[in-house]
Write a structure and sequence with these properties.
about 35% helix, Rossmann fold, single chain, about 15% strand, binds pyridoxal-5'-phosphate, alpha/beta
């Protein structure tokens, strides 16, 4: 049995995730068919793209792995997912956190402590070295035989997990996919899996014109012959985790009116983009659009 299968059953991961039709009273929405892929419902804690991104990392790691190390910010959905997963599977987890939160733990960090994660706070300069070979070698020496997962769980193994999202659908059903982009692995996984007749739009959630494209290209490897993906940078709202009134209102509308809870860091920006692009008639008439709800609601917690 693959370790990822064992983990999926132990954690009661819910896959395939449901697809719901979405019929908002937004201008232009009646010209297309909209659906939401509810990856936020995959698991109450390991939500959204984080399970898909971690799944094949679990099968890639050596059999005798007892310890996982990874990186993230103080609200990181990825660290939260890893912390819970390791706790449930009896693995030691070390979280290298950017910034010192030791005197003001976020709800995410409180959970990590509760799950016996070894949390290490590092300054920005050290955090910048998170992909440097010498830094990683030093970590491996310090945490003997630890398996190191990059920030966001974004590595080649993540692409295969994301590709499974596409395989859950009949391949001809949708012509367009919409996802948030931070490290790019999620969009890259989709770009690899979709057919030449389909396309994927990534909504940048941080300031990264050019940079995000290069991340996705690196993950994809060879250029996708059909150039079937692109990144829209118009909805990052001032940068990562930055918000504004329009975004906040949209999150409230999604949550209260359409009963699809979204948060402003990732999925809120995707739905804001969707609403605006629909009003502009951006999508071809009768397009069948699948919006991927990548989860992340834990990041909303204030206490
Ligand atoms: C991590 C995360 C993303 C970003 O995915 P990338 O693969 O890093 O682009 C998007 N949405 C949510 C909710 C996330 O937690």
């Amino acid at each position: 049995m693959l370790f990822s299968d064992f983990a999926a059953s132990k954690l009661a991961v819910r896959l395939p995730s449901p697809i719901e039709p979405f019929t908002p009273s937004w201008q232009g929405a009646d010209q297309v068919s909209l659906f939401i892929k509810r990856d936020d419902l995959i698991h109450p804690i390991i939500s959204g793209n984080k399970w898909r991104k971690l799944k094949y990392a679990l099968d890639t790691m050596p059999n005798d792995t007892k310890h996982i190390v990874s990186f993230g910010g103080g609200y990181s959905n990825h660290l939260h997912a890893c912390g819970y997963l390791c706790h449930k599977l009896g693995l030691q987890f070390t979280a290298i956190v950017r910034g010192d939160y030791s005197h003001s733990l976020t709800p995410m960090l409180k959970d990590l402590h509760h799950w016996n994660t070894n949390v290490e706070y590092v300054n920005k300069l050290t955090y910048k070295r998170r992909n440097d070979t010498d830094y990683l070698t030093a970590l491996r020496t310090r945490f003997a035989a630890a398996y190191i997962i990059p920030e966001g769980g974004s590595q080649r193994a993540a692409l295969k997990g994301m590709a499974e999202l596409v395989e859950e659908e009949s391949s001809t059903h949708f012509n367009h996919f919409l996802v948030p982009v931070a490290s790019g692995a999620t969009l890259a996984g989709l770009a690899i899996a979709i057919t030449p007749q389909q396309s994927a739009t990534g909504i940048a959630v941080l300031k990264g014109q050019g940079y995000l494209e290069s991340l996705v290209k690196t993950f994809v490897g060879l250029p996708t012959a059909e150039n079937n993906w692109y990144i829209n940078h118009d909805y990052q709202c001032g940068g990562y985790a930055k918000t504004n009134t329009a975004l906040q209102n949209l999150c409230d509308e999604m949550t209260n009116e359409y009963h699809v809870p979204v948060e402003p860091v990732y999925s809120g920006k995707v739905f804001l983009a969707l609403k605006t692009l629909l009003a502009r008639g951006h999508f071809a008439r009768n397009s069948r659009i699948l919006v991927i709800h990548t989860g992340g609601l834990q990041g909303l917690r204030q206490v």
